[in-house]
Amino acid sequence: MIPQSLSSFACASMASYLISTPFRFFPSLLLLHLSSIFGRIVHAQILRFGLQIDPFVQTSLITMYSSCGKLGSARQVFDEIPHPDLASWNSIINANFQVGLVGVARNLFDVMPERNVISWSCVINAYVRCGKCKEALALFREMQTFEANYVRPNEFILSGILAACGRLGTLEHGKRAHAYIDKCGMAVDAVLGAALIEMYAKCGNIEKARWVFGNLSPNKDVMAWSAMISGLAMHRLGEESLALFSKMINQGVRPNAVTFLAVFCACVHGGLLRKVNDYFRRMSEEAWNVVISMPMEPDVLVWGALLSGSRMQGDIDICELALMKLIELEPAKSGVYVLLSNVYAKKGMWEDVRHVRDVMKAKGIKKVPACSSIKVGGVFHEFFVGDDSHPETRRIHMMLEDILERLKVEGYVGNTKEVLLDLDEEGKELALSLHSEKLAVAYGFLKTSPGTPIRIVKNLRICRDCHVAMKMISKVFDREIIVRGCYRFHHFAHGLCSSRDYW
To answer: Computed over its alpha carbons, how large is the radius of gyration of the chain?
Structure first.
């Protein structure tokens, strides 16, 4: 118990500090992650002392309300400021982005009387977090026209741009961003180093990722190590990924949650669970034991990795359990519900399939359609399942028919088990033949010369039937095909895949 005299002294000291420096005290108090109720009490005291005219106090109030999820109150504070300063503008823009009001935030950004590097960084990185990577790149190009006004990108903006390039799989844009970093003489520190490694790995250039990693300072931090370990795992280089993890430990670098996740993914996606006894002994049961005993709370990526491994092993029970955990963590993400529906469909549990879809409908959750994109002549072309919106649809479908007929001669038979719809066999075969990645490959055949590698980026996981088809196409037509799914790369060449048929 605190002695009464000491307590009285502390209160007196606090009162003295408050009276002498109110403009410092209240903003500091507002930044302590208060509850909305206590925050309103502090706000009332600010009004009582007449401090609401102070710019620092105004920005702190906006930040406090937005961190409490009270965007309406934050906007009210902002609207009551006669002439908001730059910090207040940045704060209200960030508040809108945090709750997903991207359009409102962008409109505010567009009408700002002035912008600084924080303004640009806020919007660009928010676009990347929201998955609007094309908009982030467009805004970065716009920002570069303002360089004459001393608004130059910093390492946080560049790291966001590199992340956008990685997600889109646009190696050319990523290389330009890297060249810009070199041109400006920016030091490739921990933030930029990890971002460059991740970008090159996600864009399919693992050799360049290795080069960046090798050219970082000898005292690499955990971010760089984790990015490289994760990049190797992404390219199915599981053994190299684990060897690098061992090297990291030997050099005294302490792993964090991201590192453990990368190692876990290297084992699960690399088919190394039976070989790497020091990490995870056996697939389903042992992987489950690893998850529940990890040194951090398992997150979405951990459960996703367990889901992928259990699917490959055919362990439906752990599949279902992992999916239930994913739904708990991301209740609004459609892909998890779709996967659960697919698990039930494969088991012939059509009532459960309908129940999952009814839940999605009741929650207003819509399925994200599979989309595959291919870049030809500097332009991205996107295809969806059964897509007939492309100007050259007729030629694309004819080319795809020719490709599939050639494959059938070589022994290809469509795996209709991958069509998880209540259709007859003919309907399933038709649906299977028009998957988005097949349409993208057909367009690549139309628009590129023989022998040219075809690069495709898909927003979802490649199905087994398309995987078999891609392997056969690479052999029959002597074409290298690179498909980047939502998490992993598939390099098809001479009838084989870098995944070793494990993904």
So the answer is: 27
Which residue is it, tokens 């795809």? 400
Distance between CA atoms of 339 and 360, rounded to whole angstroms? 12
In single-letter form, the type of residue at position 324 comes to: M
3-35 residue pLDDT tens: 444 344 444 444 444 444 554 545 555 555 455
pLDDT at position 73 over 90: no
**How far apart are alpha carbons 255 and 247 in whole angstroms?**
11
The pairing of strands 454-458 and 481-484 is parallel
8 A C-beta contact, residue 227 and residue 194: yes
Residue 150: the pLDDT is 66
Instruction: Name residue 372's beta-bridge partners.
Output: 383, 458
Question: How confident is residue 139, by pLDDT bands cut at 50, 70 and 90?
Answer: very high
Sign of CA dihedral 40, 45, 47, 52: negative
Rounded-to-integer distance, Cα 91 and Cα 168, Å: 28
Distance CA 113, CA 81 (A): 14
- How many whole angstroms separate alpha carbon 253 and alpha carbon 226? 10
The pairs formed by 32-40 with CB atoms below 8 angstroms and a separation of 24 or more are 33/67, 34/64, 34/68, 35/68, 36/65, 36/68, 36/69, 36/70, 36/73, 39/64, 39/65, 39/68, 39/70
Residue in 263, 182, 177, 256 with CA at minimum distance from that of residue 223: 256
Q: Kindly report, residue by residue over 249-284, the tens digit of the pLDDT.
A: 899 988 876 787 788 777 765 555 554 444 444 334
**C-alpha span between 121 and 288 (Å, rounded):** 40
* DSSP-derived secondary structure for 316-361: HHHHHHHHHHHHHH-TT-HHHHHHHHHHHHHTT-HHHHHHHHHHHH
Pairing of strands 489-493, 481-484: antiparallel
Pairwise CA distance, residues 340 & 146, whole Å: 48
- Beta pairing class for 371-376 and 379-384: antiparallel
Q: What tens digit of pLDDT does each residue of 294-316 get?
A: 555 566 666 666 666 566 555 66
Token digits of residue 476: 């029959």
For residue 131, the tally of other CB atoms under 10 A from its CB is: 13
Ranked by mean pLDDT, the top range of 199-203, 333-337, 433-437 is 199-203
